[in-house]
Write a structure and sequence with these properties.
Helices cover 40% and strands 14% of the residues. With 225 residues, it is an alpha/beta fold. It has a four-stranded parallel beta sheet with strand order 4-5-6-7. A hairpin with a 2-residue loop joins strand 1 and strand 2 (24-25).
């Protein structure tokens, strides 16, 4: 609330609420309670607290856009639900910053069944039209080391990890859209087939943004850090 007061003072009106990362999963899920029970060290917002913060922000006209990063920056997810992961585990909450190897398995139908339920729950909790799915900093190490994933990539003509992530992003975008939200993501989600209404939040700088604009004929909206 103090941060929201500060935003109001300087007339910022979009609260980007980054709620999951390798170091913790910070929201109560009633559908998948092990996310917060095992992945947060007990430091998470209840759904009632989320609603209270959103309501507090509403009066000064501040929108709350949640970010649940995927398919990487997901170590904390796998502490409770290791079946989502591309690696063998076991997984523990990350205690250091930086890029970690943990990544969701984009090849399993069960991953998307989980995300379908999860996204249905979380999109209902946050009223804003936009929903951020992250998508940054996948180093691909778990994908490279998993023979089943490599076999899937070969069978589906996915030439590299960027193509595999694009496959994942396209499926997640449909799940987000099914819940009547517009997907937002970092630079890495931008592909030639990315739907026109997806918002790209650019963190890699002006050169990356310019290259993305040149390499696609899509009319994109861009959001800056």
């Amino acid at each position: 609330e103090r941060n929201l007061d500060g935003m109001e003072a300087v007339k910022l009106n979009v609260f980007h609420w980054h709620l999951s990362d390798d170091q913790g999963f910070r929201v109560e899920s009633k559908k998948f309670p092990l996310l917060q029970e095992k992945g947060s060290d007990g430091l998470y917002y209840t759904q009632d607290q989320i609603r209270q913060v959103i309501e507090y922000a509403r009066d000064p006209g501040i929108r709350g856009v949640p970010e649940f990063d995927m398919p990487c920056h997901t170590t904390s997810w796998f502490v409770g639900y290791p079946e989502l992961a591309s690696g063998k585990g076991p997984y523990q909450i990350a205690r250091t910053w930086g890029v970690h190897d943990a990544a969701m398995d984009p090849t399993k139908d069960s991953t998307y069944k989980f995300l379908n339920i999860f996204l249905g729950e979380m999109t209902a909790l946050f009223p804003d039209a936009y929903f951020h799915i992250g998508g940054d900093e996948c180093n691909g190490k778990e994908w490279n080391a998993n023979p089943e994933i490599q076999s899937f990539m070969h069978a589906h003509n996915l030439a590299n990890n960027a193509a595999l992530q694009a496959y994942f992003t396209a499926k997640v975008q449909k799940l987000v859209a099914k819940n009547h939200k517009i997907m937002e993501g970092w630079d890495e989600v931008l592909q030639p087939e990315t739907p026109k209404n997806v918002v790209i939040q650019s963190w890699l700088g002006q050169a990356s943004l310019a290259q993305a604009a040149r390499s696609t004929a899509l009319s994109m909206d861009f959001s800056f850090l």
